Amino acid sequence: MFELTHFIGGERASGGARFVDVFEPMTGSVIARAPLAGAREVRAAVENARAAQPGWAAMNPQRRARIFMKFLELAGREMDSLAQLLAREHGKTLADARGDIQRGLEVVEFCVAAPHLLKGGFTDSAGPGIDVYSMRQPLGVAAGITPFNFPAMIPLWMAAPAIACGNAFVLKPSERDPQTPLRLAELMIEAGLPPGVFNVVIGDKEAVDALLDDPEVKAVAFVGSSAIAEYVYARACAQGKRAQCFGAAKNHMVIMPDADMGQAVDALIGAAYGSAGERCMAISVAVPVGEETAQALIDQLAPRVESLKIGLSTDPSADFGPLISRAHLERVKTYVALGVEEGARLVVDGRDFRMQGYEDGFFMGGCLFDAVTPQMRIYKEEIFGPVLSVLRAQSYEEALALVNAHDYANGVAIFTRDGDAARDFTSRVQVGMVGVNVPIPTPLAYYTFGGWKRSAFGDLNQHGEDAFRFYTRTKTVTSRWPSGVKEGASFVIPTMS
Ligand code: NAD
Predict the structure, then answer these.
(1) DSSP classification of residue 22
(2) Domain 2-247+455-477 is of which CATH architecture?
(3) Which residues form the Aldehyde dehydrogenase domain (predicted)?
(4) Which of 75, 202, 287, 423 has the fewest CB atoms within 10 Å of its CB?
């Protein structure tokens, strides 16, 4: 066991009156002790960021982008050890940990195009002798607060565009698995980023509140559960900061009677149970349309759920590993008990699964519910575990209405062979990210990522061009040089008529 540190001004820094244990979910044992930053440590990080930012913003954007290229090279070289670190602390399989890192690096790749993305507009001769142009300028210091479930991807989704735009960044990663983001920040500095441009403070609510209240922090990005997303959004906005806060999910997959059932079941099993269901884009609700479709789905799905291979992160044949913590494991099991109480039919019960030789690990097997209704809490609330609910719909319209009535609207999928049904669905569904015969429609780095309704608070999405808008502000200049005033002063408001 060892003690972790923050990363401030390009150096490891201790500090904080409180500590938290960091676990290895597959054994259930403590692997490190992490300090929890208080107001003093957060202030130090923000102050380092504030001091480093003007110099960073003054470096020309191509040189800044080259540091990202170097970072990509270093991170690529360290992929194996980063994945091991991430998998050990989070519990997801090594292959999935690589995916977590890779999806983060893809946003860094996108940010290499910052010199292009930061270009403004220019209008020559907008009026007699008048040119108008706009530029995108950094905000100063931006902060990011991230969840436990993607400890590489989400920190990079925030840090890379924020820094590429010329800001300095303070990351407050999840205190449950902070080692991968700490290493990524170190690698950025090794790649040539000036110290202070990327800082990491480990902490909980106290550190988050200190970031939200610090006047030097001009923008806050948050990803986590919806109640906290809403809280962070409200508190940040109340202090005049920009905020984009992404929350929880309950993603549906609608299976039409004409769908290829084998393909739908293959897609569903991975999307529902991969990473033990601890993904904001996991499918947690299947909606077969028509009784025949429902019966065929349950008949094919149940044996697949029963034979899921739960294993260690290091086992290449494992479908998924342990959950993040004992408390979360108990919470998920409590939801399963609640579903039974509420009258849903528990077709597969994975609660008693024990991993031989790892009895203290945070493992559970896959659970499958049938006959779930919209009134049940197991349907309304996010469970964030390996639990899939089946809600039977009698028609396409009923399935669509069900999806549209849910509070969460992160991702959704439809499985069908009918192009017209798919087209109607993509047009009318009230959800931010839609898959057609694709179960986890996570947009690529050059598109933007974000849900609707209670899955997101704020307007601009993560990564893609939205991120470059979020982390910059626009200045528009109207200019005329002295020769243009020969005709004398005007007292009438200028128009371009
Ligand atoms: P969480 O809300 O518990 O924690 C997220 C962050 O908020 C952490 O850094 C944590 O330290 C901090 N935090 C916790 N309590 C706080 C409080 N009271 N005040 C201020 N800050 C606080 O979420 P989690 O369990 O780490 O992550 C899982 C959640 O994240 C799920 O709900 C999942 O759907 C969501 N998620 C959403 C997306 C998305 O893009 N919409 C992506 C990934 C995860």
Answers:
(1) E
(2) 3-Layer(aba) Sandwich (3.40)
(3) 18-477
(4) 423
> Hey, what are 360's tokens?
């203290």
**Best of 225, 329, 440, 455 to mutate for ligand 1, by most ligand atoms within 8 A of CB?**
225
Q: Mapping DSSP to helix (H, G, I), strand (E, B) and coil, where does residue 255 land?
A: strand
Cα angle, residue 51 at apex, residues 50 and 57 outer, rounded to 5°: 80
- Reported confidence tier of residue 486, pLDDT bands at 50, 70, 90: low
H/E stretch holding 338: helix 326-342
Q: Quote the CA–CA distance of 322 and 207 in Å, as a whole number.
A: 28
**280 is a catalytic site residue:** yes
Residue type, 17: A
| Catalytic residue, candidates 111, 165, 245, 280 | 280
Ligand 1 centroid – CA 173 distance (Å):
10
Ligand 1 pocket mutation pick from 220, 228, 461 by most atoms within 8 angstroms of CB: 228
Report d(CA 318, CA 239) in Å as an integer.
Answer: 47
* Tokens representing residue 7 in the block: 């990363």
* Residue 479, token pair as written in the block: 């200019």
Tens digit of pLDDT for each residue in 111-123?
A: 999 999 999 999 9
Six token digits for residue 314: 């290091």
Fold of 251-436: Aldehyde Dehydrogenase; Chain A, domain 2 (3.40.309)
CA distances from 437 to 181, 268, 275, 284, 475 (A): 33, 10, 21, 16, 43
Domain spans, the chain = 2-247+455-477, 251-436
Residues 6+ apart with CB under 8 A from 476: 132, 133, 134
The model carries a pTM of 0.96
ipTM > 0.95 (yes/no):
yes
CB hemisphere CA count around 98 (13 angstroms): 11
CB atoms inside a 10 Å sphere around CB 116: 10
Cα dihedral sign, 336-340-341-344? positive
Q: Which residues line ligand 1 (CB under 6 A)?
A: 145-150, 172, 174-175, 204-205, 208, 223-225, 228, 246-249, 280, 382, 384, 410, 451, 455
Tell me the per-residue pLDDT of 46-68, one tens digit each, with 9 for 90 and over: 999 999 999 999 999 999 999 99
Token reading at 285: 């609700």
- The predicted model gives 118-146 an average pLDDT of 96
